[in-house]
Amino acid sequence: MNTSLANTARLTGAALRALLALTVLCGVLYPLAVTGLAQGLFPHQANGSELRSDGRPVGSSLLGQRYDLPLTKGQDTPAPDLRWFQPRPSGGLAENTLNTQYKLQVSGATNLAGDNPDLIKSIKETKATVLADNTVPGYTPKPSDVPADAVTSSASGLDPDISPAYATLQIHRVAARNHLPVSQVTHLVTTHTTPRTLGFLGEPRVNVLELNVALAEAVKAKG
Fold first, then answer.
1. Cα angle vertex 116, ends 110, 121, to 5°?
2. CB of 69 within 8 A of CB of 79?
3. What are the tens digits of pLDDT across the range 111-123?
4. Which of 26, 53, 98, 139 has minimal CB crowding within 10 Å?
5. DSSP E strands: which ranges in 4-105?
6. For the chain, what are the domain ranges?
C-alpha cells in the first residue's frame, strides 16, 4: 500500500511538473517569442496590415470594404459614394444572421453557374450601372471598357484589389467628383498598381483602400 501511494504521488508530482513546464513554455514563452519576432520583423503585417488616414485607422489592406453614401428613407441598399474608387461588387452574398448588431457579411461567393439567369441579369444590370456612373462630361466609357471584376464578386467577397483596367475606367469620374486633374488621378492609379508577384504570379492589381487613402490626401492637399 505504501509503495502504491508513493508511486501515485511520484507520478502525480511528475505530471504536475510537466504541466507547469509545458504551460510556461507553450503558453507564455513561445507566444511571447513569436509575438516579439513578428512585431520586430513584420510590425505592419502583424498588426493586421492596418492603414491610417488623418491619424485614424480606416481599414486593412487585406480586406475589401464598401464606399457608400448613408442610407436614405425608402432605400434598401445604399448608393455608392462616387467620389471614391469603387471595389468589386459584393451584393448577393450571404449576410450574418446571428450577429445582427453589426450586419457582418459572410465571406463567400454566390456559387451561381455561369449560365444562371440570375447571375446573367445581375451582370447586365451592374454593367449598365458602371457605365452610367462613370460617364462624365468629356468621357463616355464603352461597354468593352468594363472588365470582368467590375461586374462580378470575388470568391471571398472581400477582395481588396481591383484590376488596373477597372481603376482606369473610374479615373475620369473620380477626377470630376473631386475637382482634380485627370493626370493627377491617373498618376495615383499608376503609382498604386502592383505588378505580378515575382514577375509571373497572379495579375497586376490595385488595392482600393490604399488608392483611396492616397486620393483623400490629394484632395486634402488641394484645399
1. 90
2. yes
3. 788 888 988 998 9
4. 98
5. 50-53, 56-60
6. 1-47, 66-222
